[in-house]
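User: As part of a screening pipeline, I want to sanity-check one entry by hand. Below is the sequence and the SMILES for zinc ion. Please return the complex as structure tokens so I can compare it with the automated output.
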Amino acid sequence: MFTRIKGTQDFLDLTLFNFIIDQTKKHLHAYHFTEIATPLVEQSALFKRSLGTETDVVSKEMFIIAPRTQDDEEMCLRPEATAAMVRAFVENNVESTPWQVFTWGPMFRYERPQKGRYRQFHQVSMEVIGAPSILYDVQFIKMLDRFFHERLGINNYALVLNFLGCSADRVAYEEQLKKFLDRAEGICDLCKARKDKNILRIFDCKNEACQALYQKAPVITDALCQQCADEWAQLKNTLELLSVSFVHRPTLVRGLDYYTKTVFEFVSHQLGAQNAFCAGGRYDQLVKHIGGKQDQPSLGAAIGIERLMLVLELVKDKLALPQVQPLHVIIPLSTAQQALALFVADELQAHDLCAQVLLDGASIKSMMRKANKMGAKLCLVLGEDEQRSHEVTVKNMVTGHEERIAQTDLVQYLQG
Ligand SMILES: [Zn+2]
Ligand SMILES: [Zn+2]
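Assistant: Here is the complex for your manual check:
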């Protein structure tokens, strides 16, 4: 027997998944975002360049497709969409900014699958490219907050926020942090390695002793240049003005190289250790870094659909999930009525009425039982008698009520 690849899943009921996508589209259109699509495969080099070679994603988790000939470039299944969307912005010479776009679909990580972590997972990725003002961040975060809170009715989450400053601030801060770590005793080996390679990642360490130590570490928001300090203050003040509650967490750095200034996560305790269901931030240098002619300060975020589905489990009953269309099961009593049954079904389906014919039933009793299991609202029975009189016996599966309807009136009857 074949089994699915570890870390992937079959979705046999997409109701909630599709609801999230539909609501996302509706919500983002109100904020004038355009849906785009980029390929699932990209050059590996794109992600190495943008995310940074010392990040876990690039160093351990890339889903690489090995080149088959010498001329092939190394490809990979996209681990995230931001880099790909920025690539699309640059490659297609998009001139009108801010370019407000979103996409959704599968992302891939070739890591050892664990609880809540998939090799193929799904994200909505939203980007605002060419948006220097920090007030775009406020509007963007407010848009997400309104989406989770009002459109999806989620209440049990927190917005965690930090500000990493410009690249000069980051360099200066990393220097400070390095001095702090040089003096510190008892940091774990992973943190020692990260100190030299990707120092901000020390804050993601799971070791409790390290975490206790980092409570005393210098704080990045204390090391900002004047302009960044002003922007950080403006960001916080304007979020408050728009009634967005947030928690400042100085150790939130996000793992990727491209973030500058604002970084944020929407987290839910329902999700356990990997508790963010949406995360993002500003990436002021990325566009130029991957080949844009000029700097285009930008920002973006991704929503993890599987994680959002877990968060929504609790409020699912209150969601306005789309109603399933009433099912009409058509039951020909013998082979002589089967063609007629197809004809009747065809007429219903042409009028967008959901209909299915039972063609392999043994007895009326077993077919009725089957229709019941399928969740039929009405059964349309065709026997010799109905065939002769050009009628259908319509049986209501809830009330048991039966009625004879002329075949020519059937669509109108069912629509009424
Ligand atoms: Zn700065
Ligand atoms: Zn550590």
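Points to compare against the pipeline: The chain has 15 helices and 16 strands. Residues 187-188, 190-191, 205, 207, 210 surround zinc ion (ligand 2) (CB under 6 Å).
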